[in-house]
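Notebook, bench 3.
Goal today: get a predicted structure for Ribosomal protein uS12 methylthiotransferase RimO from Halovulum marinum so we can plan the truncation constructs. The sequence was checked against the plasmid map this morning, with no discrepancies at the termini. Length recorded as 463 residues. Pasting the sequence as submitted so the record is complete.
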Amino acid sequence: MSTNPPDLRPDLAAARLTEPAPRQGQPRIGMVSLGCPKALVDSERILTRLRAEGYAISPDYAGAEAVIVNTCGFLDSAKAESLEAIGEALSENGRVIVTGCLGAEPDYITGAHPSVLAVTGPQQYEQVLDAVHAAVPPAPDPFIDLLPARGVSLTPRHYSYVKISEGCNHKCRFCIIPDMRGRLVSRPAHAVLREAEKLVAAGVKELLVISQDTSAYGVDRKHDAHPWKDGEVRSHVTDLARELGRLGAWVRLHYVYPYPHVRQLIPLMADPANGVLPYLDIPFQHAHPDVLRRMARPAKSADTLAEIARWRADCPDITLRSTFIVGYPGETEEEFRYLLDWLGEARLDRVGCFQYENVAGARSNDLPGHVPAEVRQDRWNRFMEVAQAISAEKLAARVGRRMTVIVDEVDAEAATCRTMADAPEIDGNLFIDEGFEALAPGDMVEVVVDESGDYDLWGRLAG
C-alpha cells in the first residue's frame, strides 16, 4: 500500500508506463522525468511525438537504445538531483540526451558529464527529436505502430495533467523560472478544451489544470475569444474552468494566484452539478507584507485573510492548499511569528513548506540578512507543527461524513483513494482496508469516513 506522498519520479515507477511489447527492429527510447507536473507534461509530449514516429518507449535502461533525461533546475538541490540522474543514465545505458530546465545551462551539464549526446532547453521539443533522430534513427511501420488515444502518459490512466500555458510574467526574486521558460504564453482556449475532451473520451476522470500562473491565463492573448460548441469561449481562466467543468470529469485547479477575478471561480466550485472541484492551490509563500515585498510577490498587498473568508462564505466546502518559504533572507523572528499567527487564523487545509535556499541566478541571493541553516530548520519545524495540528483537526471533523472518492491504487492491503480535497502525489489519501477487493483504479465510489490521522483518512464503502 502506498503512503503519502509517493515517489514523484516516473522513472522509478515504471509500472505506470503500460507500453506494448516492441515489434521486431523497433527503435526504443527511455525517459527519466524529474521536477514538477509541468515538466511531466513536457515528457509526455516528447514521448507521444516519438511514439507517433514509430519509436517504442522502454520502461528501463537496459531495453533502451538511448535515454532522455528531462531535468529540473529550479533549486540547487534539484540541479544536483538532475546531475545524479544524468550520471546514473550514463552508467546504466551510456547514450543520454538531456532536456528540460537545467538544459538552459548546457555548460553546467557538460562540465559534469561531457559524454552526453546532446543538451536542449525547456520546451525545445523539435531539438529533442532531432537529437533522438541522430542517436537512434526512426524506423516507423505505419501499419503496426498505433498511437494511444490519449498519447503517451506517465500518470495513471484515470487522471491527467493539462498544461494551459508556458512561462511567467512575474519577477519573484527567489525564482528563475521566467529566465528558463520565458514570459507567459497561453494556449488558445479551444485547443485546451479539445485536448481535455480527448482525454475524457479516453477514460480520464480527473483533469489537473497546471501552469506557472493559472490566474494569468490568457492575459498575453488579451483574453481572445474562439468558436466553441454553439458559441464562443475566451482564453480566460473563468471561461476555461466553466467549459472544462462541463466535460464530465473532475477539474482541479493548481497554481492560482489570489487576484480579485479568482472570486468568479468560486460559484463554479460551489455548484455540485459542475465538475470544477472546490479546491484551490494558491502559492502564498508567506504572509508578512515586508517579506512578500522582499520576495517581489504578485498580489503582495492583498488582504488574503479577507479573501479567504469570502471564498469560504460562498463555498463552505472549499479546500485551500498552499506552499510557503521560511528563512527567506531578512526574515526576522517577528515576521516568522506573524506567519504562524496568519496560518493559525487562515487554517488552510493542505500546506507545504520549504526552507529557503539560494538558486544560481536568483536575485534573492544578493539580499542582506541570510538566515542561518539551523534557524531555517527550527522555523520549518515550528511551521510544520502548526500546519500538522490544523490538518489533524480538519480531518477529524470529517469522521462520519459520506463522500465521493476516486481510487488510485489497489493492492493486497487496501484501496488507496483520494477525496475531492486531495490532489494526487501532494495531498493526503483515504484508505479502504475492508471490502475493497472488487475496486479498480479509476473507480469513483461513495464512502463513509471512519478514522482520521494527521494527513490521511480511513473509510468504508457506503451501503
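The chain has a mean pLDDT of 87. DSSP finds twelve helices and 20 strands in the chain.
Flagging this for group meeting.
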